[in-house]
Amino acid sequence: MAAYELKSARYLAAEVLEKCLRPGDTAVDATMGNGHDTLALCRLVGPQGTVYAFDIQAAAVENTRKRLEEAGVSRQAHLFCLGHEHMAERVDEPVDAAVFNLGWLPGGDHSVTTHWETTKAAIGAALSLLKKSGVLVICAYPGHAEGDRERLALTEFLSGLRPQNFNVLHQRFLNAGPGAPECFVVQKQ
Ligand SMILES: C[S@@+](CC[C@H](N)C(=O)[O-])C[C@H]1O[C@@H](n2cnc3c(N)ncnc32)[C@H](O)[C@@H]1O
């Protein structure tokens, strides 16, 4: 068996964040959900770092709070029950990384999903907040109507970013079927 295996969008997202973040850094989780990404970010930036996390669902914030407390990493986290489109009102320092895991809360109400209009506003805010060489990582889930619309609009929006300002990578398994997750990585120049 070969030593290297192609892996999913979520795996690439985690790998990029692991490579980019250092203890003491600042990161944003724009879609807290059940807190898996927030926890990973808190571990990467350590007790001297800062993580800002957003979700519109109180249950997501509560699940995340519990997860962080159990792991002993809640000190570095600021959790907001607030739409990520308000990110710039709460994050008042440049950030090293931001992560978006689009769609709905696993195990939750599928009608509460991210929507392109607010996702676009939040991505714009995150791009402005990024430090030089900072990264924005986005996992998108086509395969349902809003996810499809969001993925298409996102692809068009990111394709239009000026290469003098940002490098944009898009990872997609071409033969995996229409619902397969896709990963976008943007790095500020
Ligand atoms: C796929 S889940 C995130 C999973 C999460 N990253 C984890 O590790 O468990 C997407 C989340 O986005 C949230 N969401 C939807 N619209 C939002 C908005 N405008 N601002 C912030 N979060 C939003 C949903 O409530 C849902 O919890």
Folded structure, characterized:
By secondary structure, this protein is an alpha/beta fold. It has a single domain (10-188), classed as Vaccinia Virus protein VP39 (Rossmann fold). It is built from six helices and seven strands. The chain has helices spanning 9-20, 36-45, 58-71, 87-90, 116-129, 145-159; strands at residues 26-29, 50-55, 77-81, 95-101, 130-140, 166-171, 182-188. Strands 3-2-1-4-5-7-6 form a seven-stranded mixed sheet, sandwiched between helices. α2 packs across α3 (58-71). The longest helix is centred in the last third of the chain and has 15 residues, at 145-159. The N and C termini lie far apart (38 Å). Bound molecules: S-adenosylmethionine. S-adenosylmethionine (SAM) is lined by residues 31, 33-37, 54-57, 60, 83-85, 101, 103-105, 112, 114, 118.
CATH H level: which superfamily?
A: Vaccinia Virus protein VP39
Count of helices? 6
Number of self-contained structural domains: 1
Give the spatial strand order of the biggest sheet.
3-2-1-4-5-7-6
Bound molecules: S-adenosylmethionine
Largest sheet: 7 strands, mixed
Contiguous uncertain segments of 5+ residues: none
What is the strand tally?
Answer: 7
**What gap, in angstroms, lies between the N and C termini?**
38 Å
Mean pLDDT: 96
Give the name of the CATH architecture.
3-Layer(aba) Sandwich
In oligomeric terms, what are we looking at? single chain
